[in-house]
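Re: the 147-residue chain
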Amino acid sequence: KRMAVSWVLAADGGYAKILQADNRAAPLVLLEELEHPEARKKNNDFYTDSAGRSFDSGGQWRHAMESQFDAKSIEAQRFAKDLCAKLRQAALQNRFEKLYVVAAPAFLGVLRECLDDNAKTRIAGEIPKDVARQAPEDIRSKLPDYL
């Protein structure tokens, strides 16, 4: 009987690692690193011109108008969709039996929304920690002893 292969997705809004453990106690091996550099930009970097200016209702003070949408969170959602598509494809190909999702808390919620049922049914654990940029052995230490 083939050993259960576990995948670990460690991700934040702009960077992710897909790691694999070949059996329940195995160390994690890096399969793929994914980067979404757009997510690193500051909101202002998304707009070529500076924020518009307006007067407050009293008319005495001028202030910059905030953008109506948060470009950074839009980029995080775009990155999450890419990751979810990748996991969906791998699940359909039976490349892993169990999935652990370790993600920055806000990003974990975004991932949860876009994962399809193929990947969701394989989730063995979700850990709200921002560890994507850590070494595989450090990420492994945040997971259960037996995957």
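The mean pLDDT is 85.
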